[in-house]
Amino acid sequence: MGWFRRFYGENPLHLLALLGCFALVGAAVLALYPNPSALTIAIWFAAAVIGHDLVLYPLYALADRSLVLTRWVRRRVSSRPVTVAATNHLRLPVLGSVLLGLIWFPTISGGGAGVLFFAAGLPPAIDYVTRWLLVTAVLFLASAVLYAVRLGRAAVRST
């Protein structure tokens, strides 16, 4: 197996996983090929990949770097050591809120009101923006409570 790793550069399982991914993409392409809107789907997919890789990824990488930089600055300025990092206590609620916002964006923005009325015969009586903001607040509150508990445990442990 050493010759394979020197030739390929990775474990054989990596190649197997990569071939499986290519097979899955091939099956998806073959399933979409006879579809008349396949070109529209391909354009949407390419735009999503470009939008993520060229716009969104640099933005949230920059936001994450700013969190890490503030932790580094706090370590340099403060005489007390950082016992519990707040970075992940901010990352997780932001990720949950953004993910919920992206998944439910048509409903939150009110764009799906006609579909809801057509499918269920119900007018959109629920304010989804308020509920999304409430879920976001609960995520941040739960994360803050967990952070406070971890800080308390670290303070008790250090004394």
Description:
The protein has 159 residues and is mainly alpha-helical. It has a domain at 84-159. Helix content is 81%, strand content 0%. The protein contains seven helices and no strands. It has helices at 2-8, 12-32, 38-77, 87-103, 105-109, 113-120, 128-158. Helix 4 runs antiparallel to helix 7.
List key phrases describing it.
159 residues; mainly alpha; 7 helices; 81% helix; membrane; transmembrane helix; Lipoprotein; transmembrane
Helix content: over 70%
In N-to-C order, the SSE pattern is HHHHHHH
How much of the sequence is in beta strands? under 5%
The total beta strand count reads 0
Low-pLDDT segments, ≥5 res: none
Shape: flat
Structural class based on helices, strands and sheet pairing: mainly alpha
> What would the average pLDDT be, to the nearest integer?
85
- Quaternary organization: single chain
Please give the count of helices: 7
Major pleated sheet: none
Protein name: Lipoprotein
Transmembrane segments: 12-33, 39-62, 98-120, 132-149
Keywords: Membrane, Transmembrane, Transmembrane helix
Furnish the topology, listing elements before pairings.
Layout: H1 2-8, H2 12-32, H3 38-77, H4 87-103, H5 105-109, H6 113-120, H7 128-158
Helix pairs in contact: 4-7
Protein name: Lipoprotein
Organism: Actinomycetospora aeridis
Transmembrane segments: 12-33, 39-62, 98-120, 132-149
